[in-house]
Amino acid sequence: MHSLMKKLTTTLLLFLAGIAVFAQTGLVNHVNTLIGTKGLFLYGRTTPFVTPPFGMTHWTACTRNSRIRIPNYQYLDRKLRGFRASHKPAMWMGDYGYVTLKPVTGNINNTLMEKRNRFSHSSETAGPHYYAVKMSTAKAKKIRVEMTATERCGVMLYHFPKNAEPSVLIEASQLPDFNGYIKIDSANREIIGWNSDRHSSELGPPLPNFKGYFVIQFSEAFTSTGTWKSDTLYSNTTEQFANACGAWVSFAKGTKAVEVKIATSFISTDQARDNLQREAAGKTFEQVKDETAQQWNTYLSRIEIEGGTKKQQKIFYSAMYHTLLFPRQFSEYGRYYSAFDDTIHSGISYNDYSLWDTYRAQHPLLILTAPEHVAGMVNALTQMYEQGGYMPKWPNPTYTGIMIGTHADAVVADAIIKGVKGIDLQKAYNACMKDAMVPSGNDSINRWADRAPFTFIEARAGLHWYKKLGYVPVDKTNESVANTLEGAFDDFCVAQVAKAAGKQSDFEMLMKRSKNYVNVYNPATGMMAPRNADGTWHTDTKAGFTEGSPWTYLFAVQHDIPGLIELMGKENFIKKLDKNFKGFRYIHPNEPGHHFTYLYDYVGQAWKTQREVKRARALNYQNNPHGMWGDDDCGQMSAWYVFSALGFYPVTPGTDVYAIGTPLFPKATIYPNPANRATKLEIIANNVSARNYYVQSVSLNGKKLEEPFLHHSDIINGGTLLFEMAARPNKAW
Question: Is the pTM for the entire model greater than 0.90?
Answer without folding.
Answer: yes
